[in-house]
Write a structure and sequence with these properties.
Blueprint (H helix, E strand, L loop, with lengths): L5 E4 L14 E8 L5 H15 L4 E10 L11 E8 L6 E3 L4 E2 L6 H14 L6 E6 L9 E4 L4 E3 L1 H14 L5 E5 L8 H7 L3 E6 L11 H6 L8 H18 L11 E6 L3 H19 L4 H11 L5 E3 L6 E4 H12 L6 H17 E6 L8 E3 L11 H4 L2 H5 L1 H14 L2
Parallel strand pairs: 2-3, 2-7, 7-10, 10-11
Antiparallel strand pairs: 1-2, 1-7, 3-4, 4-5, 4-6, 8-9, 11-12, 12-15, 13-14, 14-16
Helix pairs in contact: 2-3, 3-4, 4-7, 7-10, 7-13, 8-9, 9-10
Length: 406
Amino acid sequence: MKKVIIFILLFSAKMNGTLAFKPWLAFAYFAGHNDLYGFLQNTNFPQLPQGANSNVNIISSLNVFTGCPTPPSCSFVTTQRYITQPPPTGNVQMGPTIDGLNTSDQTTFINEITFAIQQAPNNNHFVIFLGGHGNGAANGCCLDQQNGAYLTDVGIQNGLKAAMQLRGGKKTDVLAIDCCYMACIEYYYAFANYTNFVIASEEEDPGNGLPYNLCLNLLKKNNIKTLDFAKGIVGAFNATYTVSAPGGTPFNHFTLAAIDSSKVVAICQNVNSIATIFLKLLNSSSKQTTLNLINKSISKITQFPDDQPNGIFVDLKSWYTNLVKAAGSNPIFKPVVAQIKTGINLITKAVVANGTNVPGASGMTIFMPLFPGKTCCKPTYAQTLFSQAFPNWLTFLTTVKNLQNT
């Protein structure tokens, strides 16, 4: 459960607003009102000037504990807004320090995005860095430890909506979430209509998260395509943790993928269709055979615990692959196998870059609390936009869990 960082990048055809025109605008929302404040303030934030160049304006919102000897036990939190210049100038504060903001509140997120865009209002390409704790589909990211709350899928989506409105209907080009467990189909769905690409990790974030200096340096290339930029972020991350983990050896587990948002809704519809077929089978004379298939499919699967008693994430493509193998040639599973194979193809097309050393990590997870000792399901999961749009998946989970417990 580590960092979340959303990168927003913008491109413009004019020079307008507070800042001189550059082809990109990057916005970093560092949510450090938690025990990660040191990472964000002392490692991630100082990397920004190293990536500053003539093609990108960089605005950041640094939310940390200030004047507190033992954070986060004390209550004094501040927010500072910065414009980043190349060294030696570095990060320069813009305006006064703001006290007491809640980084999990969508109003805070929207206000900080609005401030960033107002500095360069005519940009065409936009990337957001979101930084803080992340805990997957049932919770969200940008934990504000004082309030015990996360920025949810709805809150992030509303920030993206605000950005789209401010930018004349243009989507955020890249939403790069440097955060634990956020590469989930449930959150990909929430962002699908407001982004071109989303970058996130299936696993707990390693070390210091994204190498922001290397990511921003990709923009030194004039007229870089958004797809190439998204792929480049994954490549920089992969290269960093392959060679520069502590001791000079590869980090023992890392994942990061870039997803084409235009492909996400079709995957969600496919998930719902598969759940619908399984529900029919589980309410038929084939109930036990179907339950055995599901249990077998998750017995050996790439999974990512979320450190909560009621949840676990599994790699969606790995689960689909296991289902096909376990179903074999059994004729009762022919319709669902056909849908599953369609889903595998859809996922393969959606994942445009995948940097990982975890076997079976294909770039996309789904909530799967069907393992022994896990319970289903937190109310917050039912409240996700995905669960509301595709309710048969949650019904499938609860039905299987009830059958497992009988």
